[in-house]
């Protein structure tokens, strides 16, 4: 216990150490976090009237980001599968970065649910009425918290074993890894069922909502991992195997193709049948009765995803800058399609035929940016303390001053970065 507490103290101290780029990045994130906290305090005082949500559109920016981040959290399984199912030991350490990202994404997702509550101080009433197993909201609470604990255990145990310079016991983490694989699929499936189970919202009443959620998650999540591993390879001494980028690239290309196919199938069903339930889809893609706020957004998302998919299938995407550009495009495209393009149109028009459009307010946007900044802050700190441990520069039998040397522990020299 004494060694473990010392490990936590050293990690805490190490999180405050870096070069000017690290401090600039952390300062910028901290500023956005403080702006978000200030905006949320205004929301606590004045209620959800500070947001763009109304009686007609009761879910907006917060739930859209929650939906997107639940999928991003499932990205960890895309590194776990090739390592533990196909025994690709070359990518073993990279699983930790996937698990760390899952932790940050789940925390952000739960924060978005929290800020979406009109009266968060009455949250305990939800616990007193824990309608298990009939309530999908109850299932969502269980799978999200369970997935968070699983990832905290896996990455925490592996990092601590690396710190102690000892081989991790398979009994203490391999069973949890396989449970996490199933759990990663379940968190997004349950979230999809939460929507498709609402009979009063025909836009969500489709059997392909869950497969669409999973396909887009397994595209956007690994794409973010590609970007974060690129930063590690560029600015740290950690050696990222080239095979990792190619494995994730192939995963992203296949998942994005499936996602686009399912989107096309959904569009065919909605528009070819021309049923009365297609009004929300018409509003989203073409506008309805002169209202077309989301039309430019959804077509931008489709264009970005198509261009990204084309780049991923071209040999040109083996070059890292092209791969990074494709990843950025598909992340933005999926965020639009799966967030605002999936949540908001279900409320327009209302069951009574009203068309009330939704636009997030500045206060709502600041809260959202604050949560994203907080999640990236957490992920940055976790990665910051993990890299020296995995590279052997921070271990229990070494002096802490060596790990505190930013030049030798985290930041690569120009020669190292070039190589």
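-> sequence recovered:
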């Amino acid at each position: 216990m004494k060694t473990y507490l010392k490990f936590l103290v050293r990690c805490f101290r190490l999180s405050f150490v870096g070069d000017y780029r690290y401090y600039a990045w952390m300062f910028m994130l901290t500023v956005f976090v403080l702006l978000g906290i200030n905006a949320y305090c205004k929301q606590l005082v004045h209620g959800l009237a500070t947001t763009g949500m109304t009686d007609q559109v009761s879910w907006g920016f917060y739930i859209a980001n929650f939906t997107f981040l639940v999928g991003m959290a499932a990205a960890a399984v895309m590194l776990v599968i090739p390592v533990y199912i196909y025994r690709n030991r070359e990518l073993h350490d990279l699983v930790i970065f996937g698990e760390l990202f899952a932790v940050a994404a789940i925390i952000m997702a739960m924060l978005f649910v929290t800020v979406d509550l009109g009266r968060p101080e009455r949250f305990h009433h939800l616990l007193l009425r824990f309608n298990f197993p009939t309530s999908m909201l109850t299932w969502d609470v269980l799978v999200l918290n369970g997935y968070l604990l699983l990832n905290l255990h896996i990455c925490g145990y592996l990092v601590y074993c690396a710190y102690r310079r000892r081989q991790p016991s398979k009994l203490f983490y391999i069973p949890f890894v396989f449970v996490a694989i199933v759990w990663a699929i379940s968190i997004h499936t349950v979230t999809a069922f939460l929507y498709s189970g609402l009979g009063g919202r025909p836009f969500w009443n489709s059997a392909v909502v869950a497969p669409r959620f999973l396909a887009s998650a397994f595209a956007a999540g690994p794409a973010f991992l590609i970007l974060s591993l690129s930063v590690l390879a560029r600015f740290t001494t950690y050696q990222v195997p080239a095979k990792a980028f190619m494995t994730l690239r192939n995963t992203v290309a296949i998942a994005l193709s499936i996602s686009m196919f399912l989107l096309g199938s959904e569009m065919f069903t909605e528009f070819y049948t021309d049923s009365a339930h297609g009004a929300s889809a018409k509003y989203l893609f073409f506008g309805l009765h002169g209202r077309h706020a989301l039309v430019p957004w959804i077509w931008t998302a489709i264009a970005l995803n198509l261009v990204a998919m084309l780049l991923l299938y071209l040999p040109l995407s083996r070059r890292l800058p092209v791969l990074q550009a494709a990843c950025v495009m598909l992340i933005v495209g999926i965020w639009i399609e799966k967030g605002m393009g999936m949540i908001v149109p279900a409320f327009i028009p209302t069951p009574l035929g009203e068309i009330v459009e939704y636009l997030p307010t500045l206060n709502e946007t600041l809260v959202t940016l604050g949560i994203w900044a907080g999640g990236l802050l957490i992920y940055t700190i976790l990665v910051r303390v993990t890299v020296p441990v995995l590279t052997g520069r921070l271990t229990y039998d070494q002096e802490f001053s060596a790990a505190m040397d930013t030049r030798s522990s985290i930041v690569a020299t120009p020669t190292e970065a070039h190589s």
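The domain at 2-418 is CATH 1.20.1630.10 (Formate dehydrogenase/DMSO reductase fold).
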